[in-house]
Amino acid sequence: MAPAPSKLYADDVSLVVVLLDTNPFFWSSSSLSFSQFLSHVLAFFNAILTLNQLNQVVVIATGYNSCDYIFDSSSDLNRSFENGRMPVMCSSLLQKLEEFLIKDEQFSKEEPDGRIKSSLLSGSLSMALCYIQRVFRSGALHPHPRILCLQGSPDGPEQYVAIMNAIFSAQHSLVPIDSCYIGAQNSAFLQQASYITGGVHHKPQNLDGLFQYLMTIFATDLHSRSFLNLPKPVGVDFRASCFCHKDTIDMGYICSVCLSIFCKHHKKCSTCGSVFGQAQSEVASASDKKRKTPET
Amino acid sequence: MNNGGGKRINGGTEEDDDEDDVNGDLDAWERTYTDERSWESLQEDESGLLRPIDNKALYHSQYRRRLRSLSSIATAARIQKGLIRYLYVVIDLSRAASEMDFRPSRIAVIAKHVEAFIREFFDQNPLSQVGLVTIKDGVAYCLTDLGGSPESHIKALMNKLECSGDSSLQNALDLIDGYLNQIPSYGHREVLILYSALSTCDPGDIMETIQKCKKSKIRCSVIGLAAEMFICKHLCQETGGIYTVALDESHFKELILEHAPPPPAIAEFAIANLIKMGFPQRAAEGSMSICSCHKEAKVGAGYTCPRCKARVCELPTECCICGLTLVSSPHLARSYHHLFPIAPFDEVPPSHLNDPNNKLQRNCFGCQQSLLNPGNKPGLFVVCPNCKRRFCLDCDIYIHESLHNCPGCESFRHSKPVISNEE
């Protein structure tokens, strides 16, 4: 998979792992159609590959029921340089994307109830990080990896713990997570992800010009970013939500055993069952240890 | 590894003083033979042919043994973990710490790894606090008070590394007992002693001190650098800690980093309590205010305490003015993976490797690396017990040590994750 080791990897070679949101519930109600979106995005991929001959692009689709790898620019099937023309990537990418969407729909079990549901961002983030670890293991010469999330679906609060785990692991491995949010409201998860890992978060105002936003903000490699004036994080909200009402709170009470957040003083923790102010003699029962996740 | 091959190849007399120079006079190719000894990494297989040691499989099997022993402790009962820890690290600065059996000296190795440990500790336990205590000339000194900022501890440690005199376990434990009695009741009290000496010179009866520590519910662990000592073993057994002795530098690093994740908590040791905490907002970009930690005017980039509106520079911290603990939600989230651990993956028994039905998943689900060895022979892989996806050995290690999410379980909406604590 790796090119010949005699090639020197300069600072500006990048590996971009793109997490493409294919949630049908979001796309069916979006002002930008999925095919228009794909045309912007495919042109963007081509542009990244032309910026540097050694750049790599890997695409992972974030579906509603599943996630999967769609495209890898370094695999042998996609590297057909003939007479200096662009590698033939569009057809194989689109074909695999279509196969993925058909399979994703077959997993559906429930009827949609009108609310836009979230996609499985935590799954595709985890897969992207595993792939990046493999690149790190491949030797001393490797492109500089980063992750780009193209997301429109809203945040799913049940994924909070998994997404935070992925964010901290990315921070530890020094992998920035960029995010371009094309949905209606704001995504607190993506804002936090970009802030904590040192990436760039942007919510384009005019979706017709999506390609321009992608090229000017997200196309540059990590080394050159220090010379550019990229959108700065404004007002990232790190306040927590209480477990009882899901309100954002400024000051709260934390259970010392399970770190659940409450807005008012309680006698007993609803997550782990610890009684406050008393030494416990028994361990909490299993029914109380539900995987409750907080929202931010 | 001692330099047994330090002979000059082109003859000549050598004196013992020249031992250090000999290495410098060797050519680079000669140094490879004296330092690396590549012939030691060969093994014989069953037919007597030589083959190199399969480091990857060895590393993975060591990792799995460690993981199994950790998870068997955790699943024996539904064990809670002490997430709010008040830990004192005791560094022995007696004569024995200047011994050079660890290169360059025991104390240099200890200092280097304590720095790494402190950073890893605050990474995994953002709400906890660490203090440093040193033992020198038989007297214990408190180097730094309990605090939540790694830089102040590391700076203080690097300044004071001179070794002399004897070591005294009892003085250290008495000092720490006094300090740890003042912390809030919901915190878990721990001590980690890095002991280089082979003796302890105590003013009184150390058994009494050990009983006092046991009554104060302080969990003492010891990492020895010399040899196993009865008194350390007794101390750890009485207080519920862990006693280990390091064989070499890399083993020492492994042992000390094992104390970074929260240990299983003994329920009676800490009283559950609701702790009042604040979640400050980031101050606006251009705002100017006097920051309460440095007492000077600063522009932007700070946090405002929700109770008294004072400005603080970084989180987590305690507001200097009103004493409220200030954290941000990611700090709490860093500890959630201790509460929701993922189940260890199952190894595939060798009989299944050649099963023709298993042609479906040829690639690791996480990194898409091929699971087949060259020549289409099946390689080693592991399987998640919930989602049944296959992962390569490297992804297995990464997932359990760093990521704490199974990509397979997260990528499928209709799989039900099983929390490994429940049986």
Automatic annotation (TrEMBL), chain A:
Gene Ontology terms for molecular function: zinc ion binding
Keyword DNA repair annotated: yes
Keywords assigned = DNA damage, DNA repair, Metal-binding, Nucleus, Transcription, Transcription regulation, Zinc, Zinc-finger
- Localization of this protein: Nucleus
Mention any one GO cellular component term assigned to this protein in its UniProt record. Answer: transcription factor TFIIH core complex
Superkingdom in the source lineage = Eukaryota
| Record-linked InterPro entries | TFIIH_Tfb4/GTF2H3, vWFA_dom_sf
One GO term under biological process is:
regulation of DNA-templated transcription
Instruction: Extract the coiled-coil ranges from the record.
Output: none
Q: Tell me which Pfam families the record gives.
A: Tfb4 (PF03850)
Whether Protease counts among this entry's keywords is: no
How does this protein assemble?
Component of the 7-subunit TFIIH core complex composed of XPB, XPD, TFB1/GTF2H1, GTF2H2/P44, TFB4/GTF2H3, TFB2/GTF2H4 and TFB5/GTF2H5, which is active in NER. The core complex associates with the 3-subunit CDK-activating kinase (CAK) module composed of CYCH1/cyclin H1, CDKD and MAT1/At4g30820 to form the 10-subunit holoenzyme (holo-TFIIH) active in transcription.
Q: Belongs to which family?
A: Belongs to the TFB4 family.
Q: What is the recorded function of this protein according to its Swiss-Prot or TrEMBL entry?
A: Component of the general transcription and DNA repair factor IIH (TFIIH) core complex, which is involved in general and transcription-coupled nucleotide excision repair (NER) of damaged DNA and, when complexed to CAK, in RNA transcription by RNA polymerase II. In NER, TFIIH acts by opening DNA around the lesion to allow the excision of the damaged oligonucleotide and its replacement by a new DNA fragment. In transcription, TFIIH has an essential role in transcription initiation.
Descriptive protein name: General transcription and DNA repair factor IIH subunit TFB4
Give the organism the record lists: Durio zibethinus (Durian)
UniProtKB/TrEMBL annotation, chain B:
Which GO BP annotation is one of this protein's? nucleotide-excision repair
What domain of life?
Eukaryota
Indicate whether Cytoplasm appears among the record's keywords: no
Q: Got a GO cellular component term for this one? A: transcription factor TFIIH holo complex
Q: Which SUPFAM superfamilies match?
A: Cysteine-rich domain (SSF57889), vWA-like (SSF53300)
Under InterPro entries, the record lists: C1-like_sf, Ssl1-like, TFIIH_C1-like_dom, TFIIH_SSL1/p44, VWF_A, vWFA_dom_sf, Znf_C2H2_type, Znf_RING/FYVE/PHD
UniProt keywords (A-Z) are:
DNA damage, DNA repair, Metal-binding, Nucleus, Transcription, Transcription regulation, Zinc, Zinc-finger
Q: Where is this region: Disordered?
A: 1-27
What is a single molecular function from GO for this protein?
A: zinc ion binding
- Residues in domain VWFA? 86-275
Regions of compositional bias (Acidic residues) in chain numbering: 13-24
| CDD domains on file | vWA_transcription_factor_IIH_type
Query: C4-type zinc finger positions in the chain?
Result: 305-322
Q: Tell me the compartments it is located in.
A: Nucleus
Describe the family membership recorded for this protein in Swiss-Prot or TrEMBL.
Belongs to the GTF2H2 family.
The protein's name in its UniProt record: General transcription factor IIH subunit
Question: Its encoding gene is what?
Answer: LOC111303871
